[in-house]
Design brief:
mainly alpha, Serine Threonine Protein Phosphatase 5, Tetratricopeptide repeat, Helix Hairpins, 3 domains, two-stranded antiparallel ribbon, 2 strands, globular
Amino acid sequence: MSSEDINSLKRKGDEAFIKGGRDEEAIEHYTSALNIAKGLKTYDDRQRAKMYSSRGECYLRTQQYEKAVADCTESLKLDRTNFKSQFRRAKAYAQLNQTEAAIADLKIVIQKDSDNTQAKELLKELESKLKGDQPTEEKSAASKTNEGTAESTRKSNKTDDDMDVTKEDQNRICDYNALNQKRIDLEEEISVLSRDIGQLEAAESMIGMLLDEHSVRLQVGYTFFAIPNDTGDELVKQQLKALKARRVDFTFQLDSIVIEMKKQRGILKAKFKDKIGLPKIEHAENEQENE
C-alpha cells in the first residue's frame, strides 16, 4: 500500500462527505485510508488530520458524539491549526452535555477566527445554559456580586467571558483528551483480556479433571481435532502466560496514563477552576479521582 492508495480512498471519502447523506460510506473510506496511513510514517500529517476531522464531522452528523470528540482530538494532535476540528469537537462536547469543554474549544476558535458567527452563537447559547444550570446558592452569590461596583462587575465579566486560553493551554487540553481516550481503550482491552483469561483458566481446570484416556478437542475454524490431554494443557498454559503478560503490560500503561492525566488535570484546574469540562479520571479498578 502506498500514498496513492491512501489518497484514492480519501478522495472517495471526500466525495461521499461532500454530497451528504452518505456519511457511513465516507466513514468507511476514511477509516480504510487512516488504517493504511498508520503504517506509512511518511504520509503527510496535515492530510491525516483532515481525514480525522472529516470523519469526526461524519460522526457528528450520525450522532456518534464520543467518536467525533476522539477523531477531532486526533486531528488537533496532528495539526494544531485545524480549527475546523476545534469547532467540530466543541459541537460534539455540547451534544454530550460537556458544556465547559465545549466553551473552552469555542473560545479558542473565536480567538483565532473572530468572524466565525456560528461559533459565537453557540458560545452565547452554551454560556446562557451554563448560567441557567448554576445551583441556587451560586446564582444568589452571582447576583450579590453583580450588585457591587461597576469596576468589580467589569472584572467579573472579563474573568467569565474573556478566559485567556494560551496555545500551551490548548495543547494541554488536547493532550488530556487524547490520554483519556487511550485510558478508555486500555480499560476495554484489559476487560477483554480478563474475560479471556477467566475462560482459559476454566478450560485448564476442566482438562485437569479429564481421565487419561480422554482427549481434548481443538477447534480450528469449523473443524475439531483430537489432541492428547498433555498437549492441550500445555497449549492452554502457554496462552494463559501470554495473555497475563499482556494484561500486566496494559495495566502498567494504564497506571502511567492515569498519573499523567492527574498531573495535567491539576495544572488545568489550577488555572481555569471549573470553567472547562475535563472528563473525570476513573481508575481501572473503579477508583475515582478525588476532586
